[in-house]
């Protein structure tokens, strides 16, 4: 991304996270999932045991000029019937700002 847009850098990441329509796949409403957000391998946000009845989670992270890797992870929560495939990050946006002088 830095090569494609050399004059700007990511400053913030925002999205919503939640469980989609599990009943369409025949899974019970009690299906649950977990998610984590990492920046450069450091945990920045996690939510556990999210189910379809929960409201979406607002994800908003500031990114520093030296941050390089944003990693989004979701898994089932270990339940017999899981919603792992239905936990989604919706409307993801990387907000960009101009690169400061002397910074990569």
Provide a brief overview of the structure.
The chain has 104 residues and is an all-beta fold.
Description:
- The protein is an all-beta fold.
- It has one domain.
- It is 0% helix and 51% strand.
- The chain contains no helices and six strands.
- The strands form two sheets. A three-stranded antiparallel β-sheet has the order 4-1-6, with no helix packed on it. Strands 3-2-5 form a three-stranded antiparallel β-sheet, with no helix packed on it.
- The chain is elongated.
- The mean pLDDT is 83.
What characteristic shape results from the CA principal axes? elongated
- List the uncertain runs: none
- Radius of gyration using CA atoms only: 16 Å
Which percent range describes the beta-strand content?
A: over 45%
DSSP strand tally = 6
- Report the order of strands and helices: EEEEEE
User: What characterizes the major β-sheet?
Assistant: 3 strands, antiparallel
Strand order of the largest sheet: 4-1-6
Q: Percent helix among the residues? A: under 10%
Structural domain tally? 1
Number of helix segments? Answer: 0
Mean pLDDT equals 83
Structural class: mainly beta
For the termini, the CA-CA separation is 12 Å
């Amino acid at each position: 991304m830095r090569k494609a847009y050399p004059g700007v850098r990511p400053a913030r990441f925002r999205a919503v996270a939640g469980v989609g329509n599990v009943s369409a796949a025949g899974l019970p409403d009690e299906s649950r999932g977990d998610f984590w957000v990492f920046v450069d391998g450091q945990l920045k946000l996690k939510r556990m045991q999210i189910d379809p009845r929960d409201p979406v989670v607002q994800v908003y992270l500031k990114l520093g000029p030296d941050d390089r890797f944003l990693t989004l992870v979701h898994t089932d929560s270990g339940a017999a019937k899981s919603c792992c495939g239905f936990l989604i990050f919706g409307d993801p946006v990387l907000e960009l700002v101009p690169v400061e002088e002397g910074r990569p």
